[in-house]
Amino acid sequence: MLSLQEAREKGIRNIHRPVFCSKHSNEEMKMFCESCDDTVCRDCCLVEHREHRCYFIEDVSVGKKKAIHNLLSQTKPHIDVLSVAIDSVTSMENSVKEKAEQVNTEINTFFDTYIEALRKHKNILQHKVKQIEAEKGKILQLQKLQLQQVLKDFEDSCNFVSDALEEGSGVEVLSIRKFLVNRLKELSASTYVCEPKENSYIKFDCEDSVGMVDGFEVKGKVSSKENKPLKCLVKGEGLSEATQGQRAEFLALIKQDKNDIEAKKYQLKVEMVAKDDHNRKVNVQVSNEKNGFHLVTYVPPAPGQFILHIMVNGKHIQGSPFIVTVKPNQILEEEEEQIVEEKPKEPVKHSGCWHCCTFCSSGGKKDATCGCGATMPGGFQGCGHGHPGHPGRKHWSCCGQTERGSSCKQTAMKAISNQSGHSNAQHQTNTLKHPSSSKQQTNHYYTLPKSFKTVSL
Fold first, then answer.
1. Average pLDDT of 350-362?
2. Segments of 224-352 assigned E as strands
3. What residues form DSSP beta bridges with 11?
4. Which residues contact 261 (CB under 8 A, 6 or more apart)?
5. Model confidence band, residue 144 (pLDDT cutoffs 50, 70, 90)
6. Alpha-carbon gap, residue 163 to 72, rounded angstroms
7. Secondary structure of the chain: what % helix, strand, coil (to 5)?
8. What is the 8-class DSSP label of residue 346?
9. Among 413, 421, 416, which Cα is nearest to 371's?
10. Nearest 5 degrees, angle CA 147-CA 153-CA 156?
């Protein structure tokens, strides 16, 4: 008799020890409860899992293994990403060492021309370079160790799952399925920083004066960080509020260090966009003044809230971005209301029908007429195809117009006539009332040519 380990060493596969139920010790685990996501025996299916969805393990193990295989294929790519990240960190670590050696070479070249007093300063600078290299290397080394540990976790977990899927039986795989799935999901959801946490910025400035050494003025400074952003002070109502259509402004002051040459080379950038739509931009003007002063002006086109970005050398100043509330302009609103009220009048509706000719639309009636004014021989008072006066196309029977969307001239003339008649009747009523009474006497005005004045009768 061979042990399980000896059988596997001899290449014998698919040899598995039966797994028995913890509740029914004589029953082998041959069923899988889909409702509980667990392996059970036949007695469990009849008692605790009586109304659950239970299947034979042989029927569902293939599908479950396939699902775990898919999850494994989604997890394995992280191994390649981590390997690339470690190579990148290692490359950056070598770059830091190369840069440090390069700076040391520059320092040696510069200070070889000086005597013993300058040598002391050189040693100080070299010590600082080594310190910077050690600090940057320590950070990168720690990051590399962390990434290696994460990589090891991924490799160990993936190898364990792979071995379980290849060598484990359906019962064994399903028994630890929850653990496998949870572990793979946990790994897939884990985060790690692939970009190096440090850069290779180590700079030696040979023109920077740092003081006296043994009575000699020395130059040379080593830095590992870029210059700090310049300070910018802003003041004005335009930073917080403005009125629609009116100019708003504020003042910006860039604080400069007279000894810092780089500080004089700055770029002030101001942008303004609508808060609810960043594609709606406001035109901002920045004037170049002396001594670091800049006047910033803009005219907001609409009311609402806007976001004001103020940046120096690509970095936001303190307090930026600012929220600007633009108040509505009452004068502009009244003008817009007047424009809205002065809408074009709707076309006058036609009272007739849209037809090809009177003969067709009336069914051959002789007394039917048409607005086009054409007639036909034989006593027909309306128009007909091919007869004189016919427009040659479809038209309105009320006014004869050939455009279907046009206003009806006949209906419009009737409306004007009715209004004129009503006005004349009202005029006669007013003028004929008590003509002999001086109290009721009314002055009448007649419209004369422009060369004449209006005369009161």
1. 87
2. 232-235, 241-243, 248-254, 268-274, 281-282, 284-286, 293-298, 304-312, 315-316, 322-327
3. none
4. none
5. very high
6. 12
7. 40, 20, 40
8. P
9. 413
10. 135
SS3 101: helix
CA distance 384 to 359: 6
Cut 0.85: pTM above it: no
The pairing of strands 293-298 and 304-312 is unpaired
Question: What are the Cα distances from residue 323, in Å, to 219, 238, 243?
Answer: 46, 10, 14
Cα–Cα distance, 358 to 371 (Å, whole number): 10
Residue of 14, 12, 19, 47 lying closest to 33 (CA atoms):
47
Write the pLDDT tens digit of every residue in 394-408. Answer: 888 888 888 888 888
pLDDT band (50, 70, 90) for residue 4: low
Q: How far apart are the first and last CA of the chain?
A: 142
Q: Helix crossing, 116-167 with 77-111: angle to 10°?
A: 170
- Written as one letter, the residue type at 95 is S
Per the listing, tokens 């572990």 go with 183
Residue partners of 410: CB distance under 8 A and separation at least 6: 351, 352, 371, 398, 399
- Per the structure block, which two tokens stand in for 408? 């009806």
Cis peptide before 196 (omega within 30 of 0): no
Query: CB–CB of 271/309 below 8 Å?
Result: yes
Of 187, 218, 190, whose CA–CA distance to 205 is shortest?
A: 218
d(CA 71, CA 75) in angstroms, rounded, equals 6
CB atoms under 10 Å from CB of 230, counted, come to: 20
Residue pair 359/376 in contact (Cβ under 8 Å)? The answer is: yes
**E strands, 214-292, in order:** 216-223, 232-235, 241-243, 248-254, 268-274, 281-282, 284-286
